[in-house]
Design brief:
The structure holds two protein chains of two kinds.
Chain A: H1 6-33, E1 54-59, E2 62-67, E3 70-81, E4 84-88, E5 91-99, E6 102-108, E7 114-120, E8 123-129, E9 135-143, E10 152-160, E11 166-167, E12 174-177, E13 180-182, E14 188-194, E15 200-207, E16 210-217, E17 222-228, E18 231-235, E19 241-247, E20 256-262, E21 267-270, E22 282-285, E23 288-294, E24 300-306, E25 314-318, E26 320-325
Parallel strand pairs in A: 12-17
Antiparallel strand pairs in A: 1-2, 1-26, 2-3, 4-5, 5-6, 6-7, 8-9, 9-10, 10-11, 12-13, 14-15, 15-16, 16-17, 18-19, 19-20, 20-21, 22-23, 23-24, 24-25
Chain B: H1 2-9, H2 20-23, H3 30-60, H4 65-71, H5 75-92, H6 96-117, H7 121-148, H8 155-184, H9 188-209, H10 217-221, H11 229-234, H12 239-253, H13 258-269, H14 276-301, H15 303-321, H16 327-353, H17 362-391, H18 393-415
The chains are: A mainly beta, B mainly alpha.
């Protein structure tokens, strides 16, 4: 290499900067042009959360509904952007982006109007409404709450829409583990599901690299462990069973098996879905579960499988996620 | 030709001439500015990706956090070993610029690798490993180049300027990522492509403007026998170099990791995630402002006192996290002290080490110092995690402060012997 003059070097640097800048700008421009928002099929008014034979889901980050009798058919898409959605008895919850870095828990009425909004730390993960429509819960991933640089931990909150009382994080609740009091700062909760009395709930608690099914009492601010290796419980409409995802061989790296726990016998039975399901399932009725699965390219689909272990999984809503029956 | 040019055009001569007093106020050498520029640009690129990676993995790829935890595996140990190997190769073949360049290029390519990795967790893990490998490989040759292009009495200033430029990049990176996301919404790949382009520009600047800095070495040193492995091991066999590596390793044990510090702050104040990245920005800001002045101070009053002062600031940071101060004063004090700790130790420790290490083995020696620190840091982070579980965060952080005090005493015993380390300047 022969020596270049400083001037020549500067010229090369400037030329490189222009070229690389053009590449970056060009790529950014095409990325920005990609359609992010689907055209609302029927406008904001068309999507309602009123109970009816429809399914609620998210299509390309937007709230949408389909007919329960023809879920793969025509879709009504609202302008409201959510990463997770759930609704019951005319009350909805939406985890809505506030900025690239922050999210809001938004409580919706049947016409998708915001009745409450709570800013939450972290990236949205789970959202649930109790069957009566009164209680709302959510889970977010919070960066930095971990010993490793890349780790995440979770924050789970509950809001009583009738009183406005909010529990920003369950982590202050008193814990009974295997019958004895327990305390540890590494406790994390996720995936709340409410019982019919709007006070007791089930959730996942993790501590010391183990994950437990816990039953909680909101008024008493307590939780107690019931079983190990149960994640993201979802209570059946009759209150007798919990659908959940179970880590294969208790090792999350091996994937998740969608299973059902009978609360009276505490017996677990696997569903016919053998693919790894990393979702909090929703009960479409007392016999059927709906859940999100992702294709290889990351696109979501809503699938359904009988809760009793029979049958085979069926594709319900292609290209959608976060299913919820409108009951 | 190149050798001749670089020898005569070198702004600050290496040989300790009769005028150190005059030189104290001279600018840092062109090579240091060039290396600082490369670091600045590279850090913009690196911090862009760091800022959006969690969002990308969880919201873009929908990986579960557990899967992401698997990514954060055991790369650190492997990269630590390769860092020493790279340092040795740079010394043996006297190609510090080349090895540094390879390190920068690896990290640049890793940004594009994120696009190609798709949703495959092993592939993403491999890409992150390549990125860290690049960072590990480049640091020691870069710092060796800085010491070799700077007269010994001005090393503090040179490293101060370099680290200040470096942290300007760290400061701008998240802002750049934010700007890109503002334009493209959720298209994280645009952030990665932009980050790659920025990193590639840094490599261009390195190739064109950074000199191997023969410092007369290429002229009269090319006939010297090549550095042998035995000679490299000799560094650890005794004398000031071994004491330095030991001290650096011990000092590494005193640091518990940024994540913990910010996490404790977040818990104390219940900060939302959107404020969380700003904690690191605050520290960078303090580091950026203080790095150069503290480097100059180190040249004047000695590097060891400044390093000791830095670790005292670290101990004070830990105590604050368990102390009575609350609210905004707590954030401001903690981040300022934490930034001051970095400013007083990061570059200054290498400035302290540089003159002690023989020029022939300087890259190897610096790699050993950095590796010792990095491995000790890994150990201390795990221990701190355990202490947190066992004793709760407040007591754990108090224990960490106590560890800092103990390590400081040990460092003084190791380094404050009547050696050249404590003198105001190295012998003229």
């Amino acid at each position: 290499m022969t020596a270049m003059s400083t001037r020549a070097k500067l010229a090369v640097v400037v030329a490189s900067a222009v070229l690389l800048g053009a590449v970056a700008a060009g790529y950014t421009a095409t990325a920005a042009e990609a359609p992010r928002t689907p055209p609302p099929a029927g406008g904001e008014q068309a999507v309602t959360l009123a109970p009816g034979p429809r399914l609620l889901a998210i299509t390309d980050r937007h709230v949408s509904t389909v007919a329960a009798t023809d879920p793969a058919g025509p879709r009504t898409v609202a302008g409201l952007e959510c990463l997770r959605v759930y609704a019951a008895a005319g009350t909805g919850v939406c985890l809505k982006p506030e900025s690239a870095w922050s999210y809001q828990v938004v409580v919706l009425d049947a016409t998708l109007r915001e009745t409450r909004a709570v800013s939450v730390p972290g990236l949205p993960n789970r959202a649930r409404v109790s069957a009566s429509g009164r209680m709302v819960s959510w889970t977010t991933f919070v960066g930095g709450d971990s010993y490793t640089s890349g780790g995440f931990s979770t924050r789970t909150g509950i809001l009583d829409t009738r009183t406005g009382a909010t529990v920003a994080s369950l982590e202050g609740f008193a814990i009974t583990r295997d019958g004895r009091g327990y305390r540890n700062p590494d406790v994390n909760y996720w995936g709340v599901t409410f019982t019919a009395d709007d006070n007791r709930f089930y959730a996942t608690m993790s501590t010391g690299a183990k994950r437990y099914l816990v039953r909680g009492d909101l008024a008493a601010r307590t939780v107690e462990t019931l079983k190990e290796n149960v994640e993201c419980p979802s209570l059946s409409p009759d209150g007798a069973r919990l659908a959940f995802k179970e880590a294969v061989d208790a090792d999350p790296a091996k994937g998740w098996r969608l299973s059902v726990l009978d609360l009276s016998s505490m017996r677990v039975s696997a569903t016919a879905e053998t693919r790894s399901v990393d979702d909090q399932a929703a009960w479409l009725n007392d016999g059927k579960l709906a859940y999100t699965l992702r294709r290889d390219d990351g696109q979501p689909d809503v699938w359904s499988v009988p809760a009793d272990g029979s049958g085979t999984p069926t594709l319900v809503i292609p290209g959608a996620e976060s299913p919820s029956p409108l009951t | 030709m190149l050798v001749y040019l670089s020898t005569v055009s070198r702004p600050v001569a290496d040989e300790p001439g009769p005028g150190p007093r005059r030189r104290r106020f001279a600018m840092v050498s062109g090579n240091v500015v060039a290396l600082g520029t490369v670091s600045l640009i590279t850090d913009v690129s690196a911090e862009m990706v760091a800022a959006v990676l969690p969002l990308y993995l969880v919201l873009g790829l929908h990986l579960s956090p557990v899967a992401f935890g698997v990514l954060d595996g055991v790369h650190t140990g492997a990269t630590a070993l390769l860092r020493v190997v790279g340092g040795f190769a740079a010394d043996r073949f006297r190609r510090r610029k080349l090895i540094a360049g390879v390190g920068y290029a690896l990290s640049a390519v890793a940004k594009l690798g994120l696009l190609l990795a798709g949703r495959s967790i092993p592939a993403i893990g491999a890409v992150i490993a390549v990125d860290r490998l690049g960072k590990g490989v480049r640091s020691a040759p870069r710092d060796a180049l800085i010491t070799l292009s700077t007269p010994p009495e001005a090393l503090g200033r040179a490293f101060g300027v370099h680290r200040a430029m470096d942290s300007v990049g760290a400061f701008l990176g998240p802002l750049a990522a934010f700007a890109v996301l503002l334009v493209v919404g959720q298209s994280y790949d645009a952030v990665f492509v932009t980050s790659f382009c920025v990193a590639a520009l840094a490599v261009v600047v390195l190739v064109l403007f950074v000199r191997e800095q023969p410092a007369g070495e290429a002229a009269d040193g090319s006939n010297d026998p090549k550095v042998s492995v035995r000679e490299a091991f000799g560094l650890l066999r005794g004398g000031p170099a071994r004491r330095l590596v030991l001290a650096a390793t011990m000092l590494g044990l005193a640091t518990i990791g940024d994540g913990f510090v910010y996490l404790l702050l977040q818990r104390r104040l219940d900060l939302g995630l959107r404020w969380f990245p700003l904690l690191a920005v605050g520290t960078s800001l303090a580091y950026l402002v203080l790095a150069a002045p503290l480097g100059v101070l180190a040249d004047r009053i000695g590097r060891l006192p400044v390093v000791i002062g830095g670790y005292t600031a670290l101990g004070a940071t830990y105590l604050l996290l368990a102390g009575p101060v609350d609210g905004w004063p707590l954030i401001a004090l903690t981040l300022t002290l934490y930034g001051a700790f970095y400013a007083a130790t990061d570059g200054v420790l290498i400035a302290l080490a540089g003159p002690v290490l023989p020029a022939r083995l300087r890259t190897t020696g610096i790699a050993l110092v950095q590796t010792g620190q990095a491995l000790a840091y890994l150990v201390s982070s795990v221990l701190f995690g355990l202490a947190w579980q066992a004793w709760g965060p407040e007591n754990a952080i108090r224990a960490a402060a106590l560890t800092v005090a103990g390590v400081l005493v040990g460092t003084l015993l190791l380094l404050a012997s009547p050696s050249r380390l404590t003198t105001r300047k190295v012998p003229r």
